[in-house]
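Sharing a chain and its predicted structure for anyone who wants a worked example. Both blocks are below, sequence first, tokens second.
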Amino acid sequence: MDFYVFVGFIIAQRLTELIIARRNERWMKARGAVEFGSGHYPIMVLLHSAFILTLSFEVLYFHRELSSLWGVLLIGFLFTQAIRVWALRSLGPYWNTKIIVLPGAEVVKKGPYQFIKHPNYVIVTLEIILIPLLFSAYTTAALFTVLNMMILTVRIRAEERALTEWTSYEIELEGNRRFLPLLKKTPTRS
């Protein structure tokens, strides 16, 4: 598998997503949507850009080879791409790389959102692990898994706070766990 073609695909995909996000942002803001978490957004952009650069450096400078498990890892990557498209299509014009909430909008509970609250974050996490492992870039996989989890801790809290404040998110998902809505929280005893 040609590393340059693979990374070119990832870059093209990310740029396409930014175009879609920009279009969706204009659509939502024209209807009164509000942006949240703008302070951490540049850090996320930097993190994802640094991921591609670090991956490229590790693979090319240290002459990393395609993993012997490349077939399994590629299937895992293709699976994440299918779920990514499903998540984006399920949210439609509400999908964005930023936290943009339309006050009073209906909470999306279709597609992968019927099974998990934040499928796109799970997909990104899996990609940050799978892509480097595909090319034996273990340092990139370890480093960016930790960095991604750190930014997602901030990001998910900000997103859930915004959704709770501006939509019926909390009521719609009352009692559901953070990542797996189908698993109800056990009531605590007083």
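Comments welcome. The chain has a mean pLDDT of 92.
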